[in-house]
Inverse folding.
């Protein structure tokens, strides 16, 4: 029996079959979804072998009494390609100007920014399973896992233009006066540098916390720049701290950006973007309707926060909760510590004070609440159509760890201007 007589698109779309698909190993599914996203741009060759094996596995699970050849499995891929991208909430641009890869991808802040200016993502890596779930729900692609593993790096295609990475900050063991490539071994930056060295992209865009400048008395940043400039041979202008509040979101979020260009491009100057929009205030990102009582603090918790702040104030410290006025600017949203408590607000629209979660005491009557995950998404510049498919706890973590999309996008535009001028 021929394949077209055996299966239909509906066969691959039924809910029970989708559940079985999700249960397969993520790395296999990563290859499969990357193949579907890149079948027309020549990059699919890097994923085709595993994509065919995955399709064969799907067919075997769907029709356990039949046997399938690789040729039949490859034919099956065409059924997936037929309407695969139609349901992706945040699809790739129709007119693609350049290719990029997304390392330490999180929930796709870099990807959004680069797609918005015509970029085509050809490889994604992220290890956190909840972030991968959010990423897939929005981009229709499963990120590959641990980028420190050689087998994961083996999937990275050749010929992409820009490497993007918001890598974690780690100390290096620096043997000499000036650390370099070898001194970064054992850190996640080493893996980024290793990929740059092997793949030689035209440019890279790295993001990190502001504290990277002073981390380990400045040695960490010095080693990073020495590696990028001297060991890898890229033109790297002085990194710059960019504040998200200057690019259209009411959040005081400072992050260090590091941009570099391959030296054969002969780019010898680069200017980071200037402020584009300082006008936004907290009110611009707040929910328009009444939010759930679960976001309102209990009287007991409010009392605890006030006592905590008073203790620190008596010692001359400025630590503690903060209520942001509607016409103000939020503090940086972060995933730990006082992330939510430093961004409380007053909202007197609550009409039902019956708790929906276990709390100590009663729901406060002052209107003090924390922001919703959607409000955090807006503070980071994510569009309304961005799907939040995880618990509130995971959503706060994901948006707190993410990049501010507008600031990334403004810098990405500057990078693209340089690349297209050559």
């Amino acid at each position: 029996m021929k394949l077209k007589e055996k299966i239909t698109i509906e066969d691959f779309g039924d809910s029970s079959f989708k559940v079985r698909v999700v249960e397969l190993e993520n790395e296999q599914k990563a290859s499969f979804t990357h193949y579907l996203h890149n079948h027309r741009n020549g990059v699919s060759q890097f994923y085709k072998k595993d994509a065919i094996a995955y399709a064969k596995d799907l067919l075997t699970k769907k029709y356990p009494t039949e046997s399938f050849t690789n040729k039949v499995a490859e034919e099956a891929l065409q059924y997936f390609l037929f309407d695969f991208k139609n349901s992706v909430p945040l699809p790739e641009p129709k007119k693609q100007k350049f290719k990029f890869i997304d390392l330490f991808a999180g929930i796709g802040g870099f990807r959004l920014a680069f797609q918005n200016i015509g970029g085509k993502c050809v490889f994604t890596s992220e290890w956190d399973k909840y972030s991968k779930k959010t990423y897939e729900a929005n981009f229709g692609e499963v990120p590959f896992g641990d980028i420190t593993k050689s087998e994961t790096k083996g999937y990275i295609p050749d010929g992409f233009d820009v490497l993007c990475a918001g890598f974690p900050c780690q100390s290096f063991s620096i043997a000499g006066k000036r650390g370099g490539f070898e001194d970064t071994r054992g850190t996640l930056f080493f893996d980024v540098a290793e990929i740059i060295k092997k793949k030689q992209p035209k440019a890279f865009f790295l993001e990190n916390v502001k504290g990277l400048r002073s981390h380990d008395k400045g040695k960490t940043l010095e080693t990073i720049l020495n590696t990028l400039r001297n060991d890898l041979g890229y033109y790297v202008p002085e990194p710059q701290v960019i504040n998200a509040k200057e690019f259209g979101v009411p959040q005081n979020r400072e992050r260090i950006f590091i941009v570099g260009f391959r030296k054969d491009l002969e780019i010898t100057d680069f200017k980071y973007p200037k402020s584009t929009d300082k006008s936004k205030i907290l009110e611009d990102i707040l929910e328009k309707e009444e939010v759930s009582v679960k976001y309102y603090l209990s009287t007991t918790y409010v009392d605890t926060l006030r006592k905590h702040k008073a203790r620190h104030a008596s010692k001359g410290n400025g630590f503690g909760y903060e209520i942001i006025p509607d016409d103000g600017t939020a503090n940086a949203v972060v995933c730990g510590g006082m992330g939510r408590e430093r961004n409380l607000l007053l909202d007197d629209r609550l009409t039902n004070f019956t708790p929906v979660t276990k709390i100590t005491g009663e729901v406060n009557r002052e209107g003090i609440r924390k922001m919703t995950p959607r409000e955090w998404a807006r503070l980071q510049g994510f569009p309304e159509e961005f799907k939040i498919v995880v618990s509130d706890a995971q959503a706060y973590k994901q948006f707190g760890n993410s990049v501010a999309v507008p600031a990334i996008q403004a810098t990405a535009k500057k990078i693209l201007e340089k690349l297209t001028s050559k």
Notes: The longest strand covers residues 254-262. The CA atoms of residues 180 and 224 lie 7 Å apart.
